[in-house]
Design goal:
The protein is mainly alpha-helical. The protein has helices at residues 3-22, 26-34, 38-70, 72-92, 96-109, 112-122, 129-154, 161-180, 200-207, 213-227, 229-242, 246-297, 301-310, 317-329, 334-364, 375-392. It has one domain (3-392): MFS general substrate transporter like domains (Growth Hormone, Chain: A). Helices cover 79% and strands 0% of the residues. It is globular, with a radius of gyration of 20 Å.
């Protein structure tokens, strides 16, 4: 594997690790800074998570368009350097507002994955794009598994230690990229920067004019909202349905993340070869309908523990969708597309936790007409069914898929 590709995958993994590294210490850090109790810390934690996602939504297309104009290399190296500095600021933060500012900057620099995906599109043939996008997804999944584990270990050295580790990782990778990363945006595919397209609404409008692409954006959004049921309610669901403790919940999520990395990093190649990109998306959506249905009604914790990693077998949808969309927009607009997809994912990250936790609370509170902890997974099943219908429904104007 070439060094630039290694750098791209490590960048994505560090991006995911940086998120996961700080999760174990955030409750204690917020309590130390604010002097409040755990409930107060949880409220601030929700605010910090939301502002991170909002910044991703707003700035994803900007970063993508900048990379289409000035190249992937400067955008990646600058965002990694700023990310490293941001973690230093958060490590030193003595007030909640400085922590808030850190999450604002962190959300902006989280364009790393979008630009990295655009880089992979640049160096991939049309036939290889989906499976290479799978490598990016696998790197992110692996980082999300490693991050919390490292964060928990480093948290024993203090609530600031994971931030220093994240800063060191981002800084070291920026240094590696400076020496090994080559530019892929040539004058042939470079395009002028346009502020009207460098925002989520402008990007959706211009990209949506391409035949079939607005439909694929809708499928991507519905899938992301449904998929975020895992981080949104899994810990609460597993405790309510199976009586699991934090260790069992962490184990199940770790198994899920590892299987996601296996599926997107390797198994997707076999599925793409047999089914093609369109068939792979349909397979993934149908599989997720079955998986969410099983999780909604399952009552055995042992069966659930074995089933959890298997549910990741449907994680081929995102790379296959990205492959279809990447071929639709052409070489000149890869950054713009990935930036728009970052915004769509961020929008789902904002909507899904509120929606899923509300449904969970509605069906588990003491006065609920029916006690049904699996209700959020049933909702996700419905969203996936709608996504399948939208993806398969004939489009007289032409189908990007």
């Amino acid at each position: 594997m070439r060094l630039p590709v290694v750098f791209i995958l490590v960048s994505v993994m560090i991006d995911a690790m940086g998120i996961g590294l700080i999760i174990p210490v955030m409750p204690d850090l917020i309590r130390d800074i604010t002097g409040g109790d755990l409930a107060h810390a949880a409220l601030w934690g929700g605010v910090l998570t939301t502002v991170f996602a909002v910044m991703q939504f707003l700035f994803g297309p900007l970063m993508g368009n900048l990379s289409d104009r000035y190249g992937r290399r400067p955008v990646l190296l600058i965002t990694l350097a700023v990310m490293a500095a941001d973690y230093v600021v958060m490590a030193l933060a003595g007030s909640i507002w400085l922590l808030f500012l850190g999450r604002v900057i962190g959300g902006i620099t989280a364009a790393t994955q979008a630009t990295a995906t655009a880089y992979m599109a640049d160096i991939s043939t049309a036939e290889k794009k989906a499976q290479n996008f799978g490598l990016v997804g696998a790197a992110f999944g692996l980082g999300f598994v490693i991050g919390p584990l490292m964060g928990g270990v480093l948290g024993e050295w203090g609530t600031r230690a994971p931030f220093w580790a994240a800063a060191a990782l981002a800084g070291a990778n920026a240094l590696l990229g400076y020496f090994v990363l080559t530019e892929t945006v040539t004058d042939k595919i470079r395009r002028p920067f346009d502020w009207r397209r460098a925002n989520p609404f402008g990007a959706f409008k211009t990209l949506g004019t391409l035949p079939g692409l607005s439909r694929l954006f809708a499928v991507f959004f519905l899938y992301q909202v449904a998929f975020f049921v895992y981080p949104a309610v899994w810990a609460y669901f597993a405790q309510a349905r199976f009586g699991w403790n934090a260790g069992m919940i962490g184990l199940s999520l770790g198994m899920f993340g590892i299987m996601m990395a296996v599926v997107q990093g390797g198994l997707i190649r076999v599925i793409l070869h047999r089914l093609g990109e369109r068939g792979t998306v349909i397979y993934g959506l149908v599989f997720d309908i079955a998986a969410f249905g099983a999780l909604a009604f399952i009552t055995s914790g042992t069966v659930a523990l074995f089933l959890t990693p298997l549910t990741a077998l449907g994680a081929v949808i995102t790379p296959a969708l990205q492959g279809i969309m990447s071929r639709t927009v052409g070489d000149r607009r890869q950054g713009e597309l990935q930036g728009a997809l970052t915004s769509v994912g961020a929008m789902a990250m904002i909507v899904s936790p509120m929606l899923m936790t509300y449904v969970f609370a509605t069906f588990t509170r003491s006065e609920a007409p029916v006690y049904f902890p699996g209700a959020p997974f049933l909702l996700s099943l419905g969203l996936i069914a709608v996504a399948l219908f939208v993806f398969c429904f004939p489009n007289r104007r032409g189908v990007a898929a």
